[in-house]
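Pasting two entries for a bug report.
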Amino acid sequence: MVSSKARHWLVTGLLLCSIVLPAQAEKADRFQKMEVESDQPGKVDLQNQIVVFNGNVVVSKGTMSIRAGRIEVRETPDGYHHATALGAPGALATFRQKREGVDEYIEGEAEKLEYDSKADTIRFTGKASVKRLRGKTVADEVSGAQITYDNTAELFTVAGGASAVTPGNPTGRVRAVLSPRQDSPAAAEAASAVPPGARR
C-alpha cells in the first residue's frame, strides 16, 4: 500500500513531466494571415522582417487571438512567424483559440507568451494558466511557472517555480484540475452524483 506522502510526490512528479489534454486547435488557423493592431504607433521593419506594436495590442490568426501590452513579431526566412507578447503593467498577456470541430476553446494567460507558427506551439511564461472551456464551463485547467502547448501533438507541458507564485498559489507548485471526457461513462456518473442544488 502506497502512503499518502508517496502518492503526493508521485502525482507532483507526473505533473512536472507533461499533461495530455484533448486540445487540438482549428487546423486552418495555422495557415491564416496574422493581423496585428494596437492603440499606439507601431514599427514595421521590412528589411529585418520585424513588427513591433505597443498599447492594447490584438493579434489575430483565424480563431486564434492574443492580447497584450506589447508584441514583437518576426518572420523567419522560410516565411513562418514567431511572436513574443508581454502583458501590460498590472495585466497578463492572454491567448484564446477554438478547438477543431467542437464548441470548445483553449484560453490562457501569462506574463509572456511566445507563439511559433512553424512548430505550432505557444509557450506561457510567468504566472501561467491555461484552461479548456466547453462552451463557458471550465473543463480542465493547468497552472505553473511555464506551460507549453503543442497543438500538433495535443500536449501541454507544465513546470513550477518562483514565477508561478500567485495569491491563489503561494507555493508556486504546478497544478492541474481535470474533468472526465465529455459524454463518457465517468462524466455521466460524476454528473449524476452532483446534488441538484449544486448544478449550474
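Entry 2 (this is the one that rendered wrong in the viewer):
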Amino acid sequence: MQLKINVTEFILLGLTQDPVQKKIVFITFLFFYLGTLSGNLVIIVTIKTSWALRSPMYFFLFYLSLSDTCLSTSAAPRMIVDALLIKNTISFSECIIQVFSLHFFGCLEIFILILMAVDRYVAICKPLHYMTIMSQWVCGVLVVAAWVGSCVHSLTQIFLALNLPFCGPNVIDHYFCDLEPLLNLACSDTYVVNLLLVSNSGAICTVSFVILMCSYAVILHSLRNHSAEGRRKALSTCISHIIVVILFFGPCIFIYTRPATTFPMDKMIAVFYTIGTPLLNPLIYTMRNAEVKNAMRKLLEKKSISNNKK
C-alpha cells in the first residue's frame, strides 16, 4: 500500500541554535571542510601522478580519499551554510538524496577499508604470491564490487525512508538527514523499520569492524617472523590503518547499532565520522607513510620548477 506523504520539507536544527555558537560553527567547520578537501585532493593527485605509488595499497588509498571527500561533501557544506541562516529547511527530495549519499559513501569507505586490510594481509602473510593475488584486474573488480555493494545498501535506506509516512512535525534535531532522526518523525509504528535499520547499517558496521580487527590481529601476529626493518615498515602502515578504523567505526557503531533513540551527544558523535575522519585520514596516511611524503615532495618540486620556467 502506498503511503501518502504530507510533509514536503524538514527543518534542520543543526548543531546549535545559539547565534554566537552558530558563527563559531561556521568558522570552525568551514576550516575543517577546506582542510578535508585540500588534504584528500592532494593525496588523490599525488597517487594519480606518481609512478612510485602504483601498488594496490595506494590504488585503494586513492578510493579511500575519494570516498572521504564525497562523504564530507554530503554533510559539511549544508551545515556550514545553515549556520548563517535563521531557518534551515530542506525539501523531502533533498533529504532523501542526502540519506542516499551519506550511506553510499560511508558504506564505500567501510568496504575500501576492508580491501586495504585484505591487501596488507596478502602483502605481509603471502608476499611471494602478492602480485598474482592482488593483480590490477583483481583490485579493479574488488573496487567495482565495493561500489555496487554500497549502492545496494544505500538503496535499501532509501526504500525504508520512502515507506515512512510523515504527517508532522517536521523538525529534525540534527545537522543532516538520516534514517535515525527521520524515524522519530514518522507517524506510524517504526519498530520493524528500526529492526531493518539495525540489521542493515548496524550489522555492516559491527561485522566489518570485527573482521578488520581480526585481520589486523593476524597480520600483527605474523610479523614476528619478519626482519626488524620489515616489521617497522609493516607496523607503520598497519597502525595507520587501525587508527583510521577505530576513528571511523567507533561513532558509526554507537549510532547505528541501537534502537531509534536520540541522545544529545548524537550530533557531535556524527561529526567524527562525517567530518572528523575525512579530515584526519590524509594527515594519518601522510605523516606515517614515507613513500607518500616523498611523492608529494617530488610533485611540489615539479610544480615549483614549472612555475619558475614560466
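Dev reply: Rendering is fixed now. As a check, the viewer should reflect this: The beta strands are 9-12, 89-91, 171-172.
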